[in-house]
Amino acid sequence: MTNPRVNKSAGISWWWVTLFIVLTSCFAVLHLGSGDSTWWLWPSTALDAQILMDIRWPRLLLVCLNGIALGLAGAVIQTIFRNPLAEPGIIGISSGAALVVVSALYFGWILPTAWSLPVLGMAGALGAFGLLWVLAGRSLQTIRLLLAGVAIAALGSALLALILSLAPNPFAFQEWTLWLMGSVANRGWEHVLLMLPSTCIAVSILFWQRHFISAHVFASSQFAVLGFNHHRAQVAVLFGLTLLVGASVVSAGMIGFIGLIAPHLVRLVGIHRPRALLWWSAAVGGSCLVAVDTIVMWLPTRQELPLGVITALFGAPILLYLLHRFAAREAGHA
Amino acid sequence: MLSVDQITVAQRLDPVSFTAAEGEVIGIIGPNGAGKSSLLEVLVGSVLPQSGQVLWGGENIIGARPMRRRHLVSYIPQQPSVFADITVTELLYEATVNLGWSSVQQHDKIAQVLREFDLQPFASRSILRLSGGEQRRVHCACSLLNQGALVIADEPTAGLDLYHQLMLLELLVKRARAGALVMIALHDLSHASMFCDRLALLDRGQFIQIGTPNEVLTATNLEKIYRVQVDWFCDERGVAMRPHRIIDTP
């Protein structure tokens, strides 16, 4: 008997890997060179070199890390909730982080240092994680987790809307609204340095728990005999998700759709095995967000568009196409 | 030796005690809501009992480490399901998680269960595109892959055609004869009498009786517990019955 697993991945992946690398590289080069056609990767003056090192590279790395974090978080959440429509915002972590950041700006809790706001945001994400843990109960059943997450997300969104409505300064209101839709404009190395360790730790945790995550292809009734310490593994996975989503929100705001769409794009090319889905979603998420930010940078708009606008503009039609494809397949199957 | 000692589950199971040895096939029978699945879920470890203990060779397996249960218990749940559009072989690979097998061992065991469960024609097909009965066979194959010494099957024949029902039950008997203890919840009393060495009869969470099929499948038990009258025939090959009337209860 041949091993279908080896055959399948070798047969499909190489074309996609090549295409993926070429496309990502093209977008990365376009991203670095946007706005000025006289230089690309080799700046001729000291000022160009400074722009490249202090603005372009951190922005590219930050947007790539954000895409990786959201793509991976989306795949993990869809797998553990066994729901293809789940996305990172569903567990309330992003609302918690955003609420604390906006509250800090509103009440002036921030210290005069670039680190204070991201650190507060991460504290908000961890607070939401703690609340999720308490509300979901010790059993951490999927349905209770989901309901607790939805409740936290709804509460966070409501409080955010309240704070935004009460904002005394209309410019602050506009700025916060734009931030909430996701942006990596005016970010520097400090944001990359916040995002990088969080992402690395989270990826390590999720890699450690990859078998537990992929075991969610089976019904929950089978978990008792699959050899996992369910509670410990669940907490570890949620903590990993908190780091990914929290760091993403504090460094770039709430970027929608990437976490939802990236796993579906991976499935679209025939990769369905949960473990492969996780890492491919991370890679596709990173690549897509680089592409989206490149579009944002090249678009001749008066003010830079939030990333969330472009991801929604591209993501919604893709989602509708997937829905149509799913419905057609169901009809054919019936 | 399995020793179930005074196991209770709130509102589902009153104290249950019995012992069973390796090599036996124990059928758990009873009408809907009798507590069959609850009893099996306690043995599997997915439900914690209010009181009592389950000893396997003197070791209480209720609080056993997950990896201990992984190697000890093979479990076919009542309603298995799968949540990914993956092939049968890929799902079987997922089912080898935490078994510590080399890739050669994985390959050999998967090839073996594909043969045993008559799944070779579907090996490369998506699990979601199989019929309900075919999916059920795949789940049974996944569950029995780990060759556990304690095999627990909750209505494993549901949804299978007659050929595959018999094939699965014969396979479970073969496992028992090879040294495993097999416990099966069944609704088909003919199958229970044919394939099980002993039957444990439950009703509304209460343990009624355990014994050979001839001892348990009496007209009195069937009328009292199942509320059906049967024509029944008993010989050295087992019990055969033909239900012919529902007994109305006030």
How does this model look, in words?
Chain B: GO terms for molecular function: ATP binding; ATP hydrolysis activity. Chain B: It holds the Pfam family ABC_tran. Chain B: Keywords: ATP-binding, Nucleotide-binding, Translocase, Transport. Chain B: InterPro entries: AAA+_ATPase (IPR003593), ABC_transporter-like_ATP-bd (IPR003439), ABC_transpr_CbiO/EcfA_su (IPR015856), P-loop_NTPase (IPR027417). The complex is a heterodimer of chains A (334) and B (250). Chain A has 334 residues and is mostly helical. Chain A contains twelve helices and no strands. Chain A is globular and about 65 Å long. Residues 1-11 of chain A have low confidence and may be disordered. With 250 residues, chain B is of the alpha/beta class. In chain B, the strands form three sheets. In chain B, strands 6-7-8-3-9-10 form a six-stranded mixed β-sheet, with helices on both faces. Chain B has a four-stranded antiparallel β-sheet with strand order 2-1-4-5, with helices on one face. In chain B, a hairpin with a 2-residue loop joins strand 4 (51-56) and strand 5. The model of chain B has no long low-confidence stretch (mean pLDDT 90). Chain A binds chain B through residues 1, 3-5, 8, 79, 82, 211, 214-219, 221-230, 267, 272-274, 333, and chain B through 41, 44-46, 66-67, 69-71, 73-75, 77-87, 89-91, 93-95, 97-99, 107, 111, 114, 120, 123-124, 129, 142-143, 146, 148.
